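DM from R.C. (forwarded with permission)

"hey, sorry to bug you on a friday — could you get me a structure for this? deadline for the figure draft is monday and I only need the backbone to look sensible"
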Amino acid sequence: MMRGVNIAIFSDLHGRALLAFMLCAQWQRETGERLTAILQAGDLAAFPDLARADRATLRHAARDPDELGFRRDFTEPRADVERILSETDCPMIFVRGNHEDHAWLDELEREARGPTFAIDPYQRIYCLRTGMPYAISDNAGESATVLGIGRIAAPPGARNPDAARYATPRELARLAALSQAKVDILLTHDTPPTNLNRRSLGMVEIRQALDTYRPVYHFYGHTDEPYRRELDANGVTTAI
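My reply, with the result:
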């Protein structure tokens, strides 16, 4: 909760977007409160075309079909899905992870004019473009501004530094050109370089955003580490 704005946070759903909406509906029923938005810190596994799913996703899907849940639930309208979604009215806003159909998202993004663009027929799931702040507002006029940084950094010596899972020069240039802005939430998939782990060397631009904008919260995923809540090195931001 922030300034009266109720926001649910998920990461690395890997196809289970509908489950997230179901959990949010249950939270609303149990608390009697309303969610303003759902934030998702990447690896939504937005693969509408099975032929473009990556090897890791297909490997996990062989054991658990829900890994391809986005394709099943959010590519064509279905009455059962619509019923579930009708229990909430909050959008899900996500940044790209490294497991997404980036070619498809690139096509949608080229047509976008604002910081977000819808990727599903229900108009409930929106991709947040890197480097374009987005204000989440409720009916009472309360708001929180989110800055997103999607994908992950290419590690030094990467064989294919232009791979779609890596943040693009255009995205990073847009982030660098961003004028001073008030940011309440930094939403990323990757981590800053200080959070070294076996999955990522971290992204320098995330460190720069934390030091420049000093958001109240930084939410990230990707690392496979247990839940952790700590104060960032900037001395202000709660990193989760």
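R.C.: lifesaver. Residues 17-31 form the longest helix (15 residues).
me: no worries. The mean pLDDT is 93.
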